[in-house]
Amino acid sequence: MADANPNPIIEVDFQGQIVYLNAAAKIKFPDLNKLQALHPILQNLVGERTPKEGTSFVREIQIENSFFEQHIHYLKESECLRSYLFEITKYRKREIKLTTGKDRYRFFFEQSTEGILVINPDTKHIVEANQAYCKLLGYSSAKIIGCNLYQLLEIERESFNQILEQITPDNPYIIRESFHRHQNGSLLAVAGKINLTNYQRQEVLCLVVRDIRDRKQAEEELQYQLLHDPLTNLPNRQLFKQQLATALAHAKRHEHLMAVIFIDIDSFTHINNTLGHSLGDKVLQSFAKRLSSCIRAGDMVNRWGSDEFVVLLPQIKNTEDTVKLAQRIFEILQRPLILGKHRLQIKCSIGIAIYPQDGDNAEGLLKNADTALYRTKEQGKNHYQFYSPHLTAEAEILMRLESLLHQALEKKQFFLEYQPQLEYKTGKIVGMEALLRWENPAFGVIMPQKFLPLAAKTNLILHLSKWVLKTACEQNLSWQKDNLPPIPVTVNLSAKEFQQPHLATVVASILDETGLDPQWLELEITELTLRQNLNLARKTLQDLQNLGVRIALDDFGCGFSSLGYLKQFSFRTLKLHQDFVRDLRGTSEELGLISAILAIGKGFNMRVVAEGVETSEQLKILEDLDCREIQGYCFSHPLPTKEATELLSKIARNNYIDVIAHRNKESVLTT
Fold first, then answer.
1. Three-state DSSP class for 140?
2. H/E element holding 663?
């Protein structure tokens, strides 16, 4: 990396402020930060001499008795100037000695380790060459003397002649890099200086060069590091953008299709959190190798960041080419990764954008491929999705909604309503479910089914869920302080919230902050949420139960309900899905199924609450089946805080309520 480079590397912004020094720069120039623009390295660096995009220049500077070549590059991406400094003190001093005395000239000319050529400025023929130059290029002096410079120098004559015209005795030309032809035909990279001087009473050009192969190798290695991911050795985001720009230009010029494909490893965060980052790094390396093995010659795999990769297909015949690649990736991932004692089945999600229909520029293609990837993950992962315009429309709606929801949080437009859970034989309220509402000035009260599904696609759902949890705990404690009978308040956990690795810590913090006893908080999760990550679910539920919090399984009896979950997890409450109750007609099949669920609940020592009880007929059937707890409009709609408090107070005063007498009254019990 740059910090390990033995040569000083310095970066300044376009205002001349230092933004980076590598270790060598700090050691070599300890006063650099103090002097800033007054230091010789930074003097006149920014200003009129600031190069344009894609350019660089080189200059020679002297610091006390030391000489340096400063190579300065303009970096648009980083918005800075980067300098590499190479010390040339010993070379510079030798040059000075060469000009100090005629008697010593021949000695230093021959003993110098730098290659030296003396050239006739008119004919460009070599007048003299020292042994260092001959050795460097593999020639004898006899073969070089008399040759034309252009036989050795790999450069356009016209451009080199223009350089020579600018040289005067007081204005030498520094050669940052040039190529001289070795006797074996290969090209050798050198750097140096050419100046105009007198030799044997004649004006000559003196070219002094040195081998820079080691320096070039160091620069190339550094450049490689800057453009490649150090973990996987794949090209990084910066290099990908360069590759994409080139591929787009070619596709436009030759009018062919190309594709950008985003790939995301499914559940990678879980691997990092459970098995450690070291193993996670090995997964990324193995995945990168498998991904690289799937592509064709000319295609490019890049690491975009974290667990995201992007593949560039510079030329495709049709969209079927991208489907074939996706299928190859899924096929190769069917083989588990064996990392030490771990056997991992890795899956991934893929989003595809095609040029030109999905975007005719880099930004559009990247954005649309990312949008397609997001939709793949949303629809269950481990698949691929092509971009389509309606995805962008939905994404824009989502962004607007997210902005509105952020404003709603800031302006305190959210509030909770509470729906009672009733033990109807005794008339006791045995729980309150907290339900989120949004009161927007323009649209009035918005029900959660309108905004929560979209909020769940963003991280805002985490902030909302935390607010609901804290507000419900505060309200429950407030009821208890008013000497109302203590009952659990139930809060629904979103899937994204439940998948957070430190959920129990967040819940513990809220309980500690509000002062609510954990036994009076019940958290509801659905079976679908459990199924998304059973290992994480097992740990999270255990941590929550260790806090003393109650856990309820919501929507039981619908979809993929599994009795095995009841055995694996210690639920306190089972909530009978409202679809069972809504269409309840009392058929033998319905009665048998509900009876079985009630028996299961009793066998596992759980409360069973029937949701969605709306009519007296439904209540009568459930009563006959000995379903003791209900929740629904038959008893009460969700109530604002004030009315919920009044209901609890009335029950506390009267001890019990005659449910049958009150359930049809639209008084305190309904809204």
1. coil
2. none
The two beta strands, 348-355 and 9-13, are: unpaired
* Alpha-carbon torsion angle 387, 390, 391, 395, nearest 10: 150
449-473 per-position pLDDT tens digit: 777 877 776 777 888 899 999 999 9
pLDDT band (50, 70, 90) for residue 94: low
Cβ–Cβ under 8 Å, residues 401 and 455: yes
Least-confidence region, from 420-424, 550-554, 650-654: 650-654
Determine the 3-state secondary structure of 587 from DSSP: coil
Could you check whether the bond before residue 356 is cis, i.e. omega within 30 degrees of 0?
yes
Q: Which long-range contacts (CB under 8 A, 24 or more apart) does 104-109 make?
A: none
Rg, the chain, Cα only: 38
Kindly report the pTM of this predicted structure: 0.47
| Contact between 398 and 378 (Cβ < 8 Å) | no
Structure tokens at 313: 């297909």
DSSP E strand boundaries for 299-383: 300-305, 308-316, 337-339, 342-344, 348-355
**Cα three-residue angle 334-338-342, rounded to 5 degrees:** 115
Both structure tokens of 496: 């994204």
Among 480, 483, 391, 475, smallest CA distance to 434 is for 475
Give the pLDDT of residue 671. 33
Q: Are 25 and 8 in contact (CB under 8 A)?
A: yes
- Residue from 402, 536, 147, 638 nearest 139 by CA: 147
CB atoms within 10 A of CB 84: 24
Average pLDDT of the segment spanning 345-367: 91
Non-local CB neighbours of 414 within 8 Å, separated by 6+ positions: 408, 436, 437, 438, 439, 464, 467, 468
Tokens of 162: 């223009």
382-438 pLDDT tens trace: 888 888 776 566 666 666 666 777 788 888 889 999 999 998 888 889 999 999 998
| CA separation for the pair 47, 62 (Å, rounded) | 20
Q: Which residues contact 303 (CB under 8 A, 6 or more apart)?
A: 229, 231, 232, 234, 235, 236, 237, 284, 288, 309
Order the strands of the 80-87 sheet from edge to edge.
18-21, 9-13, 80-87, 66-75, 56-63
Spatial distance between the Cα atoms of 47 and 373, rounded to a whole number of angstroms: 45
> Cβ distance 263 to 348 under 8 Å?
yes
